[in-house]
Structure to design on (399 residues):
């Protein structure tokens, strides 16, 4: 299905794949499209919904500038998925419940972190030099825990909270997949928040007239621009490695209770909150995907549904109008507060029937009914991606 709507009465056009777009999200898109740094147009994916400053599910190409709040504070948030040699007839509910409990013990969730021998020391050593350089220039970024040990190092291989999750799924042929969703954890939040504040200060000094202070940006050559590019690159690398470390922990948990297996060559690791240097419409630009994945021709990506529906491994079609991007998931259709008011633990149990997961009031804000219809999202982006595998979860560990 082609673009659902084009809006042209601001500085740059909007190209919208969403069949339904809340008024506040449209206002955010119009605000972004009015900025002088925007290149060519702004794209809104089928799962677009209101965010902070910039709309979640938007793709922004900017000329010689980056908007830190559009990248956000969960820098490098994204997905990893791996197909296993196991099949559906080699797993059962008893074993999966043991796996669920083991993952819950081995992978810290929420604000928790690793302790002692569980700290992923090799990964920490890999990332320490880059962070040390950044901290030398910006000592305010130091993030420490109560024991005065580096908290960021102990969060490598941890899930976080909110909509982050770990799942075991079955595909259309009955093959087992592991899939998880997480980002750069506390250090990414610290980096994002710090540089968002610096960008606002820069805009105030320049007396820039912005439609929203969360659209403050660094122009190339500005005092903090180079440091932000270095910091965001570090956080994106950390986020990708965090997912790899968690995947290893989850595979080890499966290996304790399931028959011997191997991981196939189908492993996909992709960001959906990030910025990258790319070439579009005749120019080298910064592309910020805020709740969107890269979908260049032939590139594999992951589009998850909610915890009671389906998810998809997709192959990009390289559509230039979306800046070679696609939706990153179902997208919320109501806030967490609205979901807690509207749904109960009983509703949660009904909507996640057949999935081993938490079904209590503490996770009601993640109920499938709070999300958009993933099948509608996929139908609305049939010109952006093609489905390679359809996954149905049988186990879900929430943050």
């Amino acid at each position: 299905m082609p673009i659902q709507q084009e809006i042209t009465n601001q500085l740059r056009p909007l190209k919208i794949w969403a069949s339904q777009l809340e008024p506040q999200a449209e206002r955010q898109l119009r605000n972004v499209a009015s900025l002088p740094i925007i290149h060519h147009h702004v794209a809104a994916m089928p799962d677009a919904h209101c965010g902070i400053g910039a709309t979640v599910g938007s793709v922004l190409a900017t000329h010689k500038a980056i908007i830190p709040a559009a990248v956000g504070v969960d820098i490098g948030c994204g997905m990893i998925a791996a197909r296993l040699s196991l099949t559906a007839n080699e797993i059962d509910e008893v074993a999966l419940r043991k796996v669920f409990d083991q993952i819950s013990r081995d992978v810290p969730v929420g604000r928790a972190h690793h302790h002692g021998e569980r700290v992923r020391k090799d990964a920490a050593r890999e990332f320490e030099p880059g962070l040390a350089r950044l901290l030398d220039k910006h000592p305010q970024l130091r993030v420490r825990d109560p024991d005065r040990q580096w908290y960021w190092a102990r969060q490598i291989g941890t899930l976080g909270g909110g909509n982050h999750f770990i799942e075991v799924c079955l595909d259309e042929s009955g093959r087992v997949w592991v899939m998880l969703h997480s980002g750069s954890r506390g250090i990414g939040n610290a980096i994002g928040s710090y540089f968002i504040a610096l960008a606002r200060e820069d805009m105030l000094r320049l007396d820039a007239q912005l439609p929203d202070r969360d659209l403050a940006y660094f122009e190339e050559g500005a005092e903090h621009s180079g440091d932000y590019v270095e910091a965001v690159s570090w956080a994106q690398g950390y986020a990708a490695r965090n997912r790899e470390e968690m995947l290893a922990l989850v595979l080890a948990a499966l290996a304790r209770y399931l028959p011997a297996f191997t991981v196939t060559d189908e492993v996909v690791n992709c960001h959906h909150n990030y910025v990258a240097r790319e070439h579009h419409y005749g120019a080298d630009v910064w592309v910020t995907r805020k709740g969107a994945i890269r979908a260049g021709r032939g590139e594999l990506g992951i589009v998850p549904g909610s915890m009671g529906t389906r998810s998809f491994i997709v192959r990009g079609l390289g559509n230039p109008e979306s800046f070679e991007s696609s939706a990153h998931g179902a997208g919320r259709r109501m806030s967490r507060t609205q979901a807690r008011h509207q749904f109960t633990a009983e509703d949660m149990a009904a909507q996640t029937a057949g999935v081993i997961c938490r079904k209590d009031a503490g996770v009601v804000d993640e109920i499938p009914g709070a999300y958009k219809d993933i099948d509608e999202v996929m139908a609305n982006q049939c010109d952006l991606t093609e489905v390679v595998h359809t996954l149905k979860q049988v186990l879900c560990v929430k943050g």
Remarks:
- The chain has ten helices and 17 strands.
- The mean pLDDT is 94.
